[in-house]
Amino acid sequence: xxxxxxxIRELMEHRELTGSQLAEDIGLxxxxxxxxxxxxxxxxxxxxxxxxxxxxxxxxxxxxxxAAYESKDAExxxxxxxxxxxxxxxxEEERVERFLEVKTQSIxxxxxxxxxxxxxxHSYFADFCRGSASTDxxxxxxxxxxxxxxxxxxxxxISKTVITAKIxxxxxxxSEVLCVVPFGRExxxxxxxxxxxxxxxxxxxTLQSITYAKDEGSGR
Length: 220
Known about the structure:
Elements: H1 4-15, H2 19-26, H3 30-37, H4 45-55, H5 59-69, H6 72-75, H7 89-119, E1 123-130, E2 133-141, E3 144-150, H8 158-171, E4 176-181, E5 196-199, H9 203-217
């Protein structure tokens, strides 16, 4: 049987995750994650659950991770701290501050998108949910539904954004999904029939073109 640290490293490679990225995603310090992936400590139950959620995409991977966690070799390792030790306290605080900064940027950007929609007098629902699917804004143009996904960090998780758009089109019955970014859509190389990337400054022009296309299609 593979060791717990080996299983975690292999799953990280499959997900193309670095130690610092994994630490941010599961709420540990980079130092704590480093000790886990190098076999110096083992995660607590709550951390194991987060690891499974972030790293495992199948029951087989979950079972492999659990088996390694419950092995005798892993049982002999000291538990990783939930919060970093004093030596890593500053790094942990900085990580949380970065999280809050990103969260604040996201909220402020969504407000900027809402202002643009209000100025153009578009009919929309904010934080629209249906079943397990949700979108930042759902704009109604006649009978067409346009989902708007706000992305304040242009280059983060582009592939995830594209997959999200495909799901939204299916579950929300959207005619189109627009991913609104502050600027730099020209630098995004990802292409998909399920989504269009739009700079905030171009949003209302893009929605207006959709309106014109609707009117022409209806013969008006």
